[in-house]
Amino acid sequence: MNNEGLSIFYRIRWRLVWLLLHVAGPATLPDSQDPRRRMERQRAAKVAAARRARESLSK
After folding, report:
1. How far apart are CA 39 and CA 9, in angstroms?
2. How confident is the model over 2-58, as pLDDT tens digits?
3. 35: which residues sit within 8 A by CB, 6+ positions away?
4. What is the pTM of this model?
5. Around 15, how many Cα atoms within 13 Å sit in the side-chain half-sphere?
6. Quick one: where's region Disordered (predicted)?
7. Hey, which bits of the chain come out as E strands?
8. How many Å apart are CA 57 and CA 50, to the nearest integer?
C-alpha cells in the first residue's frame, strides 16, 4: 500500500503542499533540485521504513 505508516494528517498536508508547489512552485528543475520530487522521495522513504518496521515485528 502506498500510504502505509502515514497518518491521515500527514497525507492531507503532503498532498496540499505538493499541489501548491505544482501550481506556484519553481519552474522545471532537475530531479535532484525539484522540491516536489524531493517530497516524493521522502514519502517513499517513510513508507519503506514503515514496511521494514512492520516486517521486522512480524518475524
Report:
1. 16
2. 777 788 999 999 999 999 999 988 888 888 899 999 999 999 999 999 888 888 887
3. 21, 25, 26
4. 0.79
5. 7
6. 27-59
7. none
8. 11
